User: Fold these one by one.
Assistant:
Number 1:
Amino acid sequence: YAPLLDKKSWGILPVQVKHNLLYSDLARYAPLLPHAHFIAYGINAGGLKLDSNAYTSQASLTTRGGNPIAHAALIAALRQRVEDWQRDATERPSPSTMNHLSMIYAVCHSNINALLIGPSRIAQLEDSLLWASNLAQYDYSDVYTQLTITGQQYAATR
């Protein structure tokens, strides 16, 4: 699409791209960078949870046939990171859920301009909005860097 967009004067187009710790379409859409405002969707990797006990029969990952155990190594690494960040002596709130980590991973990426969130309950919406305000107020670039490294290490072992 990039050559077509070069010929048209449509300005910046909103483009949604799947972007999460397991998979990202950003590289595939790289030719659109001069023309696009990227909106990340699928940020929670299909419903991965840090707490394996939080999966219910209605959890989105399991209802779509996903297997949380398949990503046990990544989840274990992320839980360890969360524990480390919670011991950190900064004034900023520490991420404590997969959604918090996912929002950091998307918002802090230099090519992501916005998030498309998909809460299924009011409590999830409230948490996402609260966490978005934290992301606007505090610097989480170090957390983003560590998430990127963790994701790359996990991908290399798959």
Note: The first strand starts at residue 13 and ends at 18.
Number 2:
Amino acid sequence: MSDDRIIAITMPKWGLSMQEGKVMEWLVEEGTELSMGDDVVDIETEKIANTFEALDPGLFRKRVAAPDEILPIGALLGVIAPAEVSDADVAAFIAEFQANYVPPEPEEEEGSGYENIEVNGQRIRYSKMGEAARSIILIHGFGGDAERWLFTQQPLAAESTVYAVDLPGHGQSTKDVGDGTVKSLAETVIGFMDALEIGAAYLVGHSLGGAVALQAALDASDRIEGLSLIAPAALGGEINAEYINGFVAAKSRKEIKPLLQQLVADKALINRSLINDILQFKRIDGVTEALTTISGQFQDGTQQTQNLAAQMEELEMPVQVIWGSKDEIIPASHANNVPDGVDVHILEGYGHLVQLEAVSEVNPLLLAHAS
């Protein structure tokens, strides 16, 4: 009979498409007393590298996975157990786990949790996690897709039904973006809610998606319960237009890699697989035209052309703004433009993709504000 005092640390599943991860570096020694949220091990996935944090407190007894080892989701990485549990019992637990562990079958895209729905004549791809009454919709930024939320969607789904959408022109949604304005993208979000019969939702938007979420709240305030805006556009003038225009034009690894590295403070997070995914997306018919149309609507080559900061005064809902202090795309100083009463958090040492770089700080802020 297994000892319930022994806790397995297993390969996490970050995002619907993750099948395996590579152990990069252990950050704790055996014999360390762990608290929830402590950094335990660095893991690289096919999308991005990240640090796995302790989900349970306790004494870290044994490293099982070795650095550079590639393991499927659910595989045993290490073991937590109190000191009174003998080494023999820990070894027996590991042996039993390994003997009974069966790697999950690889998932095809069609069965991986992604679905398509028609919204205002457009095909919109989305993923859904959770079954709670409260609905949260995650809206990615320019050039991104639903997988920008791979470290966010599942934690939020513990208490809510959480949808991550591919905006028109992005991911595997339609590449016909119409006029490509922030307002039309916001209409797509409201149309998405209509199509799935979501009466009201909390919106979380990153970068351009932050502007879209804010516009949706202004246009349909009776449908939006609150906002979390992460490094949002449309709160000031400055923007890294060289990044935007370079991203649209880039066709090779040599061109795209230094651009993507501007999204994060830790440049090592931009790995080869992520670069390949972006290049593959950009080679889809209609993508360049869609991105050109959208970028031309929110910036003129030097500055943002839309500023919704003043209109935030109209909102009668809780609003949160989260920014990385080292954002190279949209300066964190734009947070100074929001009205009094907005819950502002500037996280030191992180870049534009702060929800990927600072998971342990961002997710608790989102959970607290959206609850």
Note: The longest strand covers residues 122-129.
Number 3:
Amino acid sequence: MDAQLLPLVAAVAAFILWHVIMAGDRVRGALVGRLGATRFAGLFSAGALITLALAILAYGHAPYSELWDAPTWVRHISLSVMPAACILIIAGASTANPSTVGMGGPEAGSVKVVGILTITRHPLMWGIGLFGLVHMLANGDVASQILFGGISVLALLGTLRLDAKKRRVMGRKWEEFESRTSNLPFAAVTAKRVALDLAGIGWPRVLGGLALYAVMLFIHGEAFGTVPWRI
């Protein structure tokens, strides 16, 4: 491996390890007991933002080493998927959900499966995961695979880890919530375990997701040196 990639590898590893360690039962329990849930959530978020910022900074200074030249149609797919990813992120962050860190912890059995939860019980993580995957496809260089691959792995494998943890901690309450939802988007709808509730997502969340997408497009050239629609 090119030695110039080591800062990026280290930063992405720190980003992933911060999430894995802080989400562990022992560390989380000890810190919540000492700091309280609100302060722990603040510490968790601050560490995540700092390690992500370091990863982005290292990515900006990493050498370009091409693995493949992404064809135009792949980049069009990326541009087409990103609005859905942004809507999942905004809707997931604004919908009561016992699986979301810092959401306030409503009991799984008391949560109405409406809106974005009818698509997936992990909308925020799927939105982040899709963001990472499409950027891996559209950027065929080593540094992009490290950064966006790390983000995708953390988010998508994190849904499985979170399911296992909630099942262990919450027992039947979580199993009931699982029975009414799905991890894989639209799986519960396809299996007719729940009806798709587009109205429950609401236009404000859809417009919020599209606004996030527009902002990302607007700053992309200045922040990352490439203009996505000029392909």
Note: The first helix runs from residue 6 to 23.
Number 4:
Amino acid sequence: MNKCSQTLIVCCVLGLLGCAPAVKQEAGSAIPAWVNGASEQYPLALYIVGRGVGASQEEAKDRARADIAKTFAVAVFERSQDQQNYVRTERDGQSQQQLEQTVSRNIMTRTDKLLHGAEIADVWADETGSRAYALAVLSRAKAAEQLRQEIADLDAATEQYIQRSGAEPSGLIKVAFAHQAVIAQQERIGLQRSLRVVDQTGAGLPPKWSLAQLALDRDELIRRVRIYPAHEGLYVAGLVDVLNGSLGAAGFTVASATIAEYRLRAEVELDDPLYQDGWYWIRGALELNLTDRDGKPLGVQRWPLKVSATEEDRARGRVLDAIESLLKRDLRSTVLEFAMAKQAAQETDGHDRTQ
């Protein structure tokens, strides 16, 4: 995971820990043992400990909180071998990056809840009051209990997703459940890493499923989904070929209109070229519309387009390049999002009918 994501989770954690109570100490009182060594009151066997030093008590507290936050940030975003295998099953780095961003947001939310249990346990200032120290602590037992429950919830959800995917006859709803099983288990890895930090044995809870195998199973289901590519509106030379290639690269099967289960329509809208400072600029939009064979809508996604060149013909030629790059990056994840939205809508409709 990139450094921005790690910074984000530390910032979120600091915000939560900022609400924790603190124990006040008078400046110049006896130096607490935890300033230069271990704390008898909060032994490392029972607590995750963070220490901070600063010019003020608030600065010291912030650094102590960050000390705990960094421990979990590293644990959450450190990849296991399963994650590395999973990355290799993805067909392009951009799709994986998008999924990682979604998963990391979910992991951050769960980690935030975990760190609600942390508190500033003690503060101390030297005789001059120019140097402050703070101790932040998190109970290992409470944190481990919460993490195990979170992991158990994810495992239960994964079991249900796998069963429901198996029960579906075919199509994108089947893929949607399989994809959610993958997401749940990738989130689990982040929590397992945190649990191994909290758990003194370092064992945590070994997974029941291989994330790499779940991803391979999902990709096999994707391969069985047959999609017919089409285009409407402004014709861009080679657009159908780009759609064909992008669907194939995303793992879907390109099929004729007569046998395809779904129809993916691409529509391109372009403004007239704008000449400015020696450059021709073309702006517009690409819209994808996915429907089933009966014409029922499954999802719509729209992206802006913007290209430029010193010659008008070259600028027009770059439109197709921009579309190809965009589809290579987003098509797979977009169709999977359509599938999950459709599955969620079906469940909502079913729930409403039972009320």
Note: Residues 33 and 39 are 6 Å apart (CA to CA).
